[in-house]
Amino acid sequence: MKDKQRGFSLIEVMVSLVILVVGLIGIFNLHIVAKRGSFESYQQTLASYYAVDMINRMRLNRTQIAGYAGSYAGSLTAPAKSCDLAVGGNAVCTNNETRLWDLFQWEQSMNGAGEIRGELTTGGLDAPTACIQVSGTGDVLVVVTWRGLRPLSDGAANANSFVKSCGTTSKRRRIYSINTVII
Hints:
This protein is of the alpha+beta class. The protein has a domain at about 10-75 and about 125-180. It is about 40% helix and about 15% strand.
């Protein structure tokens, strides 16, 4: 009578390991793609937050609305007077001082000054630039640009000239803009 063999041969084990490794590599790559997508989404969420934040600051200081217009990339210095109303604070600021403080705080938060690890800012957007356009009728266009992770296409390629001029032209430039009216 013939003996029946039991178990797996070495070749069968090697083939199954190769299949398992190929599957695991696919899963790890999928994880990396998901992390990148999550970071890109987070950056867009931050950009929308900063744009809406500036619009709200402008609504609260309507008399200075024209003074908010400009391009902001992190070069503002701290104003002489801090207009923060912390718990127990009693700073009284003029509308002009409030505008200067708003722009400074806005620029600092976009650059991640609120989250610092060692000497590096870890929060905020990657290489942000923000531009504000104000017309005489109260139309306000707030544009926030930043650098994305992957080169895809320039986010402002099909936009108007004001949006195109905001930030550095690049295949990694991302754009978020809001057009509103402040009366």
